[in-house]
């Protein structure tokens, strides 16, 4: 089909675009940095991410489900601005007092402010229309939600920065496609890669933007393939470079994840007397764990709980013993080391509580058809229900057992069941850790397989872990599976009122960042309703326009070629890319079983705002064409855009206290400054 | 008129004997010895109980799918004169003589047999040779897993039948499209597509996948029509409307009609009543309807009522109180008000009765005429037996400390005043002056002093509260949640002012005089919603498997085992066919990619019309396999091998397509062609051999231990080998 003809009349961004860029950037920075120090206490999730930033400054080891880049950047910002990492970030509402928190908030606000110029440039590139870009920029500047989310120590501004950066560089790179291998082409291509890596390194949600860029790359390559003027060689060259982006980002990402095994060396073969941790092999499975608490009454036998716990903990340590003798002689340094072999019957003693891993024919707490697993016995003395046969999958009897590499199955000798983790979360009494059961169904699933991860035995020589490290691809797979399935620990409870994905685009319910009562300083994360409803309406409008455009083009209705090029380029190509971005950042949430929050929608909201800019610009242009006089046409077009911007600004004037803080009675009270603005009963301000 | 007098009436019949022979063979393979074994086989134990309930007209809820499949099974029972009296409790239990085994199993077997001619015709409609079509039909005929699944009272074969029927009718419709649009036959096949799709969805929700596929293909074809400049806009609109009517509106209407028949058939109350709302229960004969039938509709001041929580989780329960008080100190050291406990109690009890009282008046009887309570009115709720007032105050609830405790007020004279005013908010009101109605109104009770909402927390109280469920006042009521909504279930107008008389009145059964009937749509929405949201606890099963095991058939399911002889029935596929189908899918994908890329570079390896055939066959067969298989990777429910059978059917259809393509376009010389034919003959005999080998476990013929051991071709197969006692 070839490239659309660009006529001389097609609107090209005039010189004004630089001034516009400067203006929206300035506005954006002002709106994000205005009243940044307020409120001077910990708000919402600052308690997590601030704390983790402090950990980096103090070099404390910790474990978290998010990849580390975002928290490292927060730590770095704090460090550079003179924060010493001493503030405990215990709970929301704690006052910062003399601690310097402005560096970290400033950093996030800076990244949040960059979203506006990024979106401006992206839309400008896609639509070649200054008004569309300005409309998008104003939507983002005056959205209370975006402002609030940028003003605190959170991962979201960092994520969205990289995300928008990746989209912008992708779009720029596409527009350089007519001169491949030029300097600017290389620059934008490599920036795309860097930004994708950054997005993936902050939150797993970054995966969606990688998908977007990946799809775009495939489409481009397909296009190139059809271009017969290109030789196959140059196609292949592009093929090699294109997917490199995504690959690079994944490699970077895995490097970051792989870190927690870095620089450790442990003994290779398992021996009696060793202290070990056992990790379940299901994706995002936990460590075998026990603690002093007993199973509550009515849940099997009232013995000590055994669970799977996702984080490192002293209570994950177990001692391997022979089933018929005690440790005393094993710890004696003179006695020879005896290795554990495939098929041996062993006992596992919990190090902290000295109870043995035990199972019996009581039903398990959640999976009723399995047997309960408990900690039993005193000081390592129990009964024959503490005996487990250790087997390596796919190995013959008598072989040694390797740490990390061997897949282990533990069979309960008395009942013949197999130790496994069901993946279900226990209720409060089990501290919401994961259930561990003994399954009578003798089947090979990752649920019932384990490996030894830590291994401490002073009598054995340590070897470097690099030898044992799982292969790169395995880490890659696991890290992505973690995102897809691992968050199941965050399942909503039955009676909890949770945020549903369909709530988000209609701005149904916000999030309390700070303050509950009338006397508190309240900040409430809620999108500017006018902006959000405009976005929502525009999505439907876009769908209508896109379908009718596609049908009109397909039917071959006579249009001027100028029109045709413009419609297919802006509506179908530019708008399509943005709409695809919105879908990719929104639809997957419907399939997630985990607890969801309102702020998960903001990346999608960025795309939706860009779509709004593009759609209204096209629509107004289209209608003004019907007017005969070109001055009237221009006036209608300009007036329409201006009216939309003014509407957005007025609504921001109404709702700005949501971001910049409210004090005084709640909105339901007529004397409140927000009186009359609680348009939906579900808003709580 | 009278034309037959001038010209003789001539009937020219054209019968495809291939098709007839295939159908007969199919019927033989599926229907032969249908009543053996005369025992409950595998999931018959599950579907059988529903058949029994249909026979007895007792209402039930089955979360596994919509009702058409169950109704078809029940139709078999009805035709066989089954009275529903059989206890479906155990796989392997002998059927008693009143169970018409043969007719119960007949419909699934017939559907399974008819899949064979359908497969034949699908290939013909895809413009492949009769030889390829014959091959497809034979492969389906000799597929052991499809035979096993068809021969019992199970739903998969019916599902596959409707899926194939839908595909076939769409193809017929599409092929008629070119020369005779809007002809009678065109309409017939188009409508049949819609009907078959809705039947497939009605049997199992899995049918939705194929329906979506067909919709997508129809959309694609219509998109191509849009590009045809010879068609006028008007005729395009007509085409669009015709498709919309038959592929969207008719299926929805059919789907609704399944539920209509289902609800009409099942009018008696039964074991699953308590899942449904009070209004629904009241529409069933017996059960709640017997109690509530004819009770006064409008709640008035002085009414005696029981209040049921709408959520009904963890179990249905009614607002309850009893003379015991909250313990002064809880186990964790927190204090309570020590007032009378208010709980939610899962059983009917005289202590569930409350009286609605006007705060401004003393009397507890209904005046004449009754003064109805409306939305927004403030009331007091008096516990019938103890005459204490429902109260809540700023004391932490026993198990949910962030909420307020709810009690029946006892005045200890310790400066803790009574706060017993509640505002009635009707959630499902139509106007703000709506009257509070029995059963129909869903009501929130908002505490006037603290604006807390009466809520079931879901936690169950410790020993001091007799393990009843905790009721709290929720201060931070975020939006609507069913745990905060209550409805009046039993209701009568109070008549006795004296406490003694009133106690007698409370103990007496309610008597009624009006009945309430829900509209069909209300019933349908509720039932549909319950089916979709009802979550059975994940039950792990000995024979459950993961979707990945299916491709290679690493798993099997033992359906039945003879108690003494070694005879057993397994769901086990034809190994040869499964592997060939996999290879065919791989070959198809690789070849298509190769052609696509070459075509993009303007190199055409095969003629254009051959490419069109190849692509449209792929849309149906590979598309059908993908949509019926991949979604299982996202599902969290317990999966079994039989879930793969629809996908497998599509994959099998692909084998002859790939073979014919290879022989037509890749075997250029005569020699290679004849060698290829020889290979096909050899391969087909191995399919027959595999069928023969496994047919004893398909049909349940007795086998010796050695023979059974020989059948265990894969270590992961679970073939039951009885230990011989010597």
From TrEMBL, chain A:
Pathway: Protein modification; protein glycosylation
GO molecular function: dolichyl-phosphate-mannose-protein mannosyltransferase activity
Protein origin, superkingdom: Eukaryota
Main location: endoplasmic reticulum
Residue stretches making up the MIR domain: 267-323, 337-393, 398-455
Family statement: Belongs to the glycosyltransferase 39 family.
Listed name of the protein: Protein O-mannosyl-transferase 2
Organism from which the protein derives: Meleagris gallopavo
From TrEMBL, chain B:
Keyword Transmembrane helix in annotation: yes
Membrane-related topology note: Multi-pass membrane protein
Signal peptide: none
InterPro entries documented for this protein: ArnT-like_N, MIR_dom_sf, MIR_motif, PMT-like, PMT_4TMC
GO molecular function terms listed in the Swiss-Prot or TrEMBL record: dolichyl-phosphate-mannose-protein mannosyltransferase activity
Keywords from the UniProt entry: Endoplasmic reticulum, Glycosyltransferase, Membrane, Repeat, Transferase, Transmembrane, Transmembrane helix
TM segment ranges: 9-28, 106-124, 131-147, 153-174, 186-203, 209-226, 247-267, 578-597, 609-627, 639-662, 674-694
Domain MIR as annotated: residue spans: 296-359, 370-427, 431-491
Enzyme Commission number, as recorded: 2.4.1.109
Chief location: endoplasmic reticulum
Cell membrane recorded as keyword: no
The reaction(s) this protein catalyses: a di-trans,poly-cis-dolichyl beta-D-mannosyl phosphate + L-seryl-[protein] = 3-O-(alpha-D-mannosyl)-L-seryl-[protein] + a di-trans,poly-cis-dolichyl phosphate + H(+); a di-trans,poly-cis-dolichyl beta-D-mannosyl phosphate + L-threonyl-[protein] = 3-O-(alpha-D-mannosyl)-L-threonyl-[protein] + a di-trans,poly-cis-dolichyl phosphate + H(+)
One of the Pfam families matching this protein, by short name: MIR
UniProt pathway annotation: Protein modification; protein glycosylation
GO biological process, one term: extracellular matrix organization
Localisation: Endoplasmic reticulum membrane
One GO cellular component term noted in the UniProt record for this chain: sarcoplasmic reticulum
Highest taxon of the lineage: Eukaryota
Family: Belongs to the glycosyltransferase 39 family.
Protein name according to UniProt: Protein O-mannosyl-transferase 1
Biological source species: Meleagris gallopavo (Wild turkey)
């Amino acid at each position: 089909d070839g490239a659309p003809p660009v006529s001389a009349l097609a609107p090209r961004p005039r010189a004004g675009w630089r001034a516009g860029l400067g203006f929206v950037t300035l506005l954006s920075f002002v709106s994000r940095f205005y009243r940044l120090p307020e409120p001077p206490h910990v708000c919402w999730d600052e308690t997590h991410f601030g704390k983790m930033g402090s950990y980096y400054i103090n070099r404390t080891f910790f474990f978290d489900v998010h990849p580390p880049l975002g928290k490292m950047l927060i730590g770095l910002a704090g460090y550079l601005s003179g924060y010493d990492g001493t503030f405990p970030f215990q709970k929301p509402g704690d006052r910062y007092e003399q601690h310097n928190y402005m560096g970290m908030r400033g950093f996030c606000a800076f990244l949040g402010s960059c979203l506006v110029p990024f979106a401006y440039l992206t839309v400008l590139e896609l639509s070649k229309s200054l008004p569309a870009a300005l409309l998008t920029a104003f939507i983002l500047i005056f959205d209370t939600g975006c402002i609030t989310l940028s003003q605190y120590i959170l991962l979201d501004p960092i994520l969205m920065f990289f995300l928008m950066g990746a989209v912008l560089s992708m779009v720029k790179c596409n527009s350089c496609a007519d001169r491949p291998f030029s300097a600017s082409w290389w620059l934008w291509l490599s920036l795309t890669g860097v930004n994708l890596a950054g997005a993936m390194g902050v939150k797993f949600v970054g995966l969606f933007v990688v998908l977007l860029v990946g799809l775009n790359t495939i489409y481009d390559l397909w296009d190139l393939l059809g271009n017969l003027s290109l030789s196959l060689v140059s196609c292949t060259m592009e093929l090699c470079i294109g997917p490199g982006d995504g690959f690079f980002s994944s490699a970077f990402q895995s490097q970051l994840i792989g870190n927690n095994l870095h620089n450790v060396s442990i003994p290779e073969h398992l021996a009696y007397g060793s202290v070990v941790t056992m990790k379940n092999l299901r994706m995002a499975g936990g460590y075998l764990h026990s603690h002093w608490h007993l199973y509550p009454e009515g849940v099997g036998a009232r013995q000590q709980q055994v669970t799977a716990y996702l984080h490192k903990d002293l209570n994950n340590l177990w001692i391997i013993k022979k089933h018929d003798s005690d440790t005393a002689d094993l710890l004696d340094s003179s006695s020879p080391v005896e290795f554990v072999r495939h098929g041996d019957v062993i006992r596992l003693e919990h190090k902290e509580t000295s109870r043995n891993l035990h199972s019996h024919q009581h039903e398990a707490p959640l999976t009723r058809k399995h047997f309960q697993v408990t900690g039993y016995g005193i000081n390592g003395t129990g009964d024959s229900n503490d005996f487990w046969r250790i087997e390596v999958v796919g190995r013959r009897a008598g072989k040694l057992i390797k740490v990390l590499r061997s897949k282990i199955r533990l069979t309960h000798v008395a009942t013949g069941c197999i130790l496994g983790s069901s993946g279900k979360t226990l209720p409060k009494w089990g501290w919401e850790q994961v259930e561990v059961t003994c399954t009578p169904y003798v089947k090979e699933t990752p649920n019932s397989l384990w490996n030894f991860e830590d291994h401490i035995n002073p009598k054995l020589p340590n070897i470097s872990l690099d030898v044992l490290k799982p292969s790169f691809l395995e880490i890659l797979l696991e890290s992505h599976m973690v995102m897809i399935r691992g968050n199941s620990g965050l399942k909503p409870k039955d009676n909890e009122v949770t945020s549903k994905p369909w709530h988000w685009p209609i701005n149904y319910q916000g999030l309390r960042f700070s303050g509950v009562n009338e006397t508190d300083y309240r900040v409430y994360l809620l999108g500017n309703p006018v902006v959000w409803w405009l976005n929502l309406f525009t999505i439907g409008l876009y769908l209508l326009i896109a379908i009718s455009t596609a049908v009109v083009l397909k039917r071959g209705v006579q249009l001027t070629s100028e029109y045709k090029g413009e419609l297919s380029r802006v509506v179908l190509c530019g708008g399509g890319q943005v709409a695809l971005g919105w879908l990719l950042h929104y639809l997957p949430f419907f399939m997630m079983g985990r607890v969801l929050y309102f702020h998960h929608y903001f990346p999608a909201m960025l795309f939706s705002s860009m779509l709004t800019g593009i759609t209204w610009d096209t629509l107004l242009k289209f209608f003004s064409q019907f007017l005969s006089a070109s001055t009237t046409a221009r006036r209608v077009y300009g007036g329409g855009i201006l009216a939309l911007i003014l509407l957005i600004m007025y609504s921001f004037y109404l709702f700005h206290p949501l971001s910049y803080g409210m004090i005084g009675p709640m909105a339901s009270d007529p004397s409140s400054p927000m009186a009359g603005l609680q348009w939906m009963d579900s808003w709580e301000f | 008129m009278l034309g037959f007098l001038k010209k003789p009436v001539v009937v020219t019949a054209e019968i495809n004997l291939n098709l007839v022979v295939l159908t007969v063979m199919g019927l033989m393979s599926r229907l032969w010895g249908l009543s053996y074994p005369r025992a409950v086989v595998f999931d018959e134990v599950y579907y059988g109980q529903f058949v029994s309930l249909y026979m007895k007209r007792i209402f039930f809820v089955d979360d596994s799918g919509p009702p058409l499949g169950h109704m078809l099974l029940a139709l078999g029972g009805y035709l066989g004169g089954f009275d529903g009296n059989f206890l479906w409790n155990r796989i392997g239990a002998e059927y008693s003589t009143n169970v018409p085994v043969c007719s119960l199993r007949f419909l699934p077997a017939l559907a399974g047999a008819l899949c064979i001619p359908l497969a034949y015709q699908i290939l013909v409609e895809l413009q492949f040779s009769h030889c390829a079509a014959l091959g497809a039909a034979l492969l389906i005929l000799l597929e052991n897993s499809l035979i096993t699944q068809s021969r019992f009272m199970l739903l998969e074969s019916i599902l596959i039948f409707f899926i194939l029927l839908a595909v076939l009718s769409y193809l017929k419709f599409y092929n008629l499209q070119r020369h005779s649009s809007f002809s009678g036959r065109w309409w017939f096949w188009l409508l049949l597509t819609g009907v078959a799709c809705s039947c497939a969805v009605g049997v199992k929700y899995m049918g939705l996948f194929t329906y979506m596929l067909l919709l997508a293909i129809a959309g694609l074809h219509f998109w191509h029509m849009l590009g045809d400049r010879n068609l006028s806009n008007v005729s395009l609109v007509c085409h669009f409307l015709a498709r919309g009517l038959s592929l969207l509106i008719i299926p929805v209407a059919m789907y609704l009609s399944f539920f209509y028949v289902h609800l009409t058939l099942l009018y008696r109350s039964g074991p699953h009543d308590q899942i449904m709302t009070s209004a629904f229960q009241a529409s069933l004969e017996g059960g709640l309807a017997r109690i509530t039938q004819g009770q006064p509709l409008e709640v008035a001041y002085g009414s005696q009522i029981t209040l049921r929580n709408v959520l009904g989780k963890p179990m249905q329960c009614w607002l309850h109180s009893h003379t015991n008080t909250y313990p002064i100190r809880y186990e964790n050291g927190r204090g309570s008000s020590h007032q009378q406990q208010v709980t939610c109690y899962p059983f009917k009890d005289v202590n569930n009765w409350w009286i609605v009282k006007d705060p401004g008046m003393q009397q507890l009887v209904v005046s004449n005429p009754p003064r109805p309570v409306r939305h927004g009115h403030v009331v007091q709720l008096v516990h019938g037996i103890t005459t204490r007032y429902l109260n809540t105050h700023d004391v932490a609830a026993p198990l949910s400390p962030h909420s307020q405790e709810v009690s029946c007020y006892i005045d200890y004279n310790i400066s803790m005043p009574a706060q017993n005013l509640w505002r009635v908010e009707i959630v499902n009101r139509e106007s703000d002056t709506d009257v509070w109605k029995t059963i129909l109104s869903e009501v929130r009770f908002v505490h006037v002093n603290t604006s807390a909402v009466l809520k079931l927390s879901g936690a169950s109280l410790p020993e001091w509260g007799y393990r009843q469920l905790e009721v709290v006042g929720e201060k931070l009521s975020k939006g609507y949640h069913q745990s905060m909504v209550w409805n009046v279930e039993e209701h009568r107008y109070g008549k006795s002012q004296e406490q003694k008389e009133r106690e007698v009145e409370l103990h007496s059964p309610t008597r009624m005089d009006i009945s309430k009937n829900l509209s069909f749509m209300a019933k349908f929405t509720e039932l549909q919603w319950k089916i979709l949201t009802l979550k059975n606890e994940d039950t792990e099963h000995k024979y459950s498997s993961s979707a990945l095991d299916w491709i290679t058939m690493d798993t099997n399911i033992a359906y039945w085992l003879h108690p003494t002889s070694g005879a057993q029935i397994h769901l086990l596929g034809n190994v040869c066919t499964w592997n060939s189908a996999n290879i065919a899918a791989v070959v198809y994908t690789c070849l298509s990619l190769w052609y696509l890329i070459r075509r993009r570079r303007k190199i055409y390896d095969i003629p254009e019309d051959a490419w069109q055939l190849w692509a449209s066959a792929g849309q149906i067969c590979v598309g059908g396999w993908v949509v019926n298989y991949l979604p299982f990777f996202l599902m969290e429910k317990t999966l079994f091998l039989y879930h793969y059978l629809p996908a497998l059917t599509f994959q099998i259809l692909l084998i002859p397509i790939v073979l014919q393509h290879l022989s037509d376009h890749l075997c250029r010389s005569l020699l290679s062609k004849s060698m290829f034919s020889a290979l096909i003959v050899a391969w087909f005999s191995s399919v027959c051999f595999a069928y023969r080998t496994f047919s004893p476990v398909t049909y349940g013929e007795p086998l010796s231990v050695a023979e059974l051991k020989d059948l265990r071709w894969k270590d992961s197969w679970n073939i039951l080998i009885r230990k011989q006692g010597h």
